[in-house]
Write a structure and sequence with these properties.
This is Histidine kinase. The chain is α+β, with helices and mostly antiparallel strands. It folds into 3 domains: 135 residues, Immunoglobulin-like, CATH 2.60.40; 126 residues, Immunoglobulin-like (Sandwich); 139 residues, Histidine kinase-like ATPase, C-terminal domain (Heat Shock Protein 90, 2-Layer Sandwich). 32% of the residues lie in helices and 33% in strands. The chain has 7 helices and 28 strands. Strands 1, 2, 5, 8, 9 and 10 form a 6-stranded antiparallel sheet that branches. It has a 6-stranded mixed sheet with strand order 3-4-12-11-6-7, with no helix packed on it. A hairpin with an 8-residue loop joins strand 1 and strand 2. Helix 3 runs antiparallel to helix 7, helix 4 runs antiparallel to helix 5 and helix 5 runs parallel beside helix 6. The radius of gyration is 41 Å and the shape is elongated. About 2% of the residues have low confidence.
Length: 536
């Protein structure tokens, strides 16, 4: 009977222990459904997240601080386990990057190369990999990512799972100018309760007791009479000021101009973390009250203030004159804008006239083939004409140089079927896809070279078109070996006349990008030179 009773008791304690262990394991298990973003580490396309056990309370995460661009701070309570996530947009971005996980004693817990981790697709980040689960009870754990080829490219995320340290103000001292304002120094008194600001005063210096995480604390100054915060900063400096215990202590200088009134001010140092109220963080803060006496001195600013009064009077007079002049200038601008709109309307009207002019000439060529019973060439011409027509009808106000060159090539191939001439197009030192010119600006000039230049020469006719650059200018030259014509003849064709009008209106609208055209013609041929000023 005793053996049976002992056996039952043994089984009872065993199953109780197993149940308790299972319950504890379940409570301490990491909640992988919830991952916290730990902050920007200034590493392109790579970020770090973390999941915690169900008992952990994530109080504040992804905190960034001044003067520390590559560190992020997360504060949790009652944490037991943690699992880091490493996320990246593209797997190529993790090349050459390594990671190291350390505790607060700087012991390496885990390290390796990112490209050795098992990344899976993630709907938000692109790709994600999980590190092994870590025990973090009462620990401070940090993970650092760094480039093995360039260690300067690194960032650290800190997970703080301990009680925050109590802040302590160790120095409050007046700063004053020396060497005629070229430098400053600090009074030997290091714990003053009364400060007098005179003309030689620069401000006060406040130093805090240093700890490994001083950067999470903020220095705050409040005017006690009003409760207004007149100063707040976390840009701690770690040079020059040393305490009796040795080592440079974090300190911040406060300019005297923040103290607008004489009276009592409270100096406060406390943690400044997102998502946690000031009231809750008060238990980790330290406070000291100083009495500030501002000695009124007449400075350059005071004389400037009195000068302002005189300037205001002069300003009122000047403002009246300015209003009248501005009103006149507004009317002038309004008139110029109206003139610009009229010019733009004329430009669009001219371009709309060019399109039917081109179409009528092309249809005339097709009719010529049909009258000559040359059906094959008529079909070829009509095929190229259809392609060119779509380009002409759908073109915007400006087109790329490449598109315009292709338009000229299509047109010359069309006319070559009819007249049998030879042509050549060359482009040097120009990126055609990055340069725009007015649409259909060149076609009427080339058409003129065909119809009035080399049409009668047939297969002896030649047309050459050159695109080149001269410093910031673009040059386009159209040459034919025709019989030439009188460039001063006022009865020139419609296409040439419309082109000249377009150039004239363009130059009125674009004073900094002018187009000039010059035609030289004699019995051996005609050359047309177009210069696009400051086009490149």
């Amino acid at each position: 009977m005793k053996k049976i009773t002992f056996l039952l008791l043994t089984l009872f304690f065993y199953f109780s222990t197993v149940a308790q262990t299972n319950q504890q394991t379940e409570l301490y298990s990491v909640n992988t459904k919830r991952s916290y973003y730990l902050g920007s580490l200034d590493i392109p396309e790579i970020s770090i997240g973390a999941s915690f056990d169900t008992l952990a309370k994530v109080r504040s995460y992804a905190n960034k601080f001044p003067n520390i661009s590559n560190k992020a701070f997360t504060y949790i309570q009652n944490g037991n386990r943690l699992q880091f996530d490493i996320n990246c947009k593209q797997l190529s971005s993790i090349k050459d990057y390594r990671f190291v996980v350390m505790d607060d004693l700087k012991n390496d817990i885990l390290s390796g190369s990112l490209d050795q981790l098992e990344f899976t697709k993630h709907p938000l980040f692109g790709y994600s990999a999980k590190l092994p689960t870590l025990d973090i009870q009462d620990k401070v754990i940090s993970i650092t990512l760094y480039n093995s080829k360039d260690p300067a490219q690194q960032g650290t995320a800190i997970v703080y799972n301990q009680t925050l340290s109590q802040s302590e103000i160790i120095i409050i001292s007046r700063q004053f100018f020396i060497d005629g304002g070229k430098g400053s120094t600090v009074e030997m008194k290091r714990d003053v309760s009364e400060v007098t600001f005179d003309q030689e005063s620069k401000g006060i210096l406040v130093a805090a007791k240093k700890n490994d995480y001083s950067f999470i604390y903020a220095l705050i100054v409040k005017e006690k009479k009003t409760g207004e915060t007149v100063f707040k900063d976390q840009s701690w400096n770690y040079s020059y000021i040393s305490s009796k215990g040795g080592g440079n202590q974090p300190h911040i200088s406060i300019d005297k101009n923040y103290f607008k009134n004489s009276g009592d001010y409270e100096i406060i140092i406390r943690p400044d973390l997102k998502h946690i109220s000031e009231k809750e963080l008060e238990q980790y803060s330290s406070r000291k009250t100083i009495s500030v006496d501002i000695v009124k001195t007449y400075t350059t600013e005071d004389f400037f203030l009195w000068s302002i009064i005189l300037i205001v009077i002069c300003f009122c007079i000047a403002a009246s004159l300015f209003y009248l002049i501005r009103r006149k200038n507004k009317q002038k601008i309004k008139d110029e804008n109206l003139k610009k709109k009229i010019s733009e309307t004329k430009l669009a009207s001219i371009q709309s006239q060019l399109n039917p002019h081109f179409l009528f000439n092309a249809l005339s060529s097709i009719q010529s083939f049909i009258n000559d019973h040359d059906v094959d060439n008529a079909n070829r011409y009509l095929s190229k004409f259809a392609r060119l027509t779509r380009h002409v009808l759908n073109s915007p106000a400006s087109n790329t140089l490449t598109d315009e060159q292709n338009l000229l090539a299509d047109y010359l191939m069309m006319e070559q079927l009819r007249f049998g001439f030879q042509y050549e197009i060359q482009r040097n030192n120009l990126e055609g896809d990055n340069i725009e010119i007015p649409t259909m600006l060149l076609q009427p000039l080339v058409e003129n070279a065909v119809k009035h230049g080399i049409a009668e020469l047939r297969d002896r006719g030649e047309i050459k078109i050159y695109f080149d650059r001269k410093e910031n200018d673009m040059l386009i030259i159209i040459i034919d070996n025709g019989m030439g014509y009188d460039v001063y003849n006022t009865t020139i064709g419609l296409g040439i006349r419309l082109t000249n009008e377009r150039i004239q209106i363009w130059n009125e609208l674009h004073q900094k990008a002018l187009i000039s055209i010059e035609t030289v013609s004699n019995s051996t041929g005609t050359s047309v030179y177009l210069t696009f000023k400051n086009w490149l």
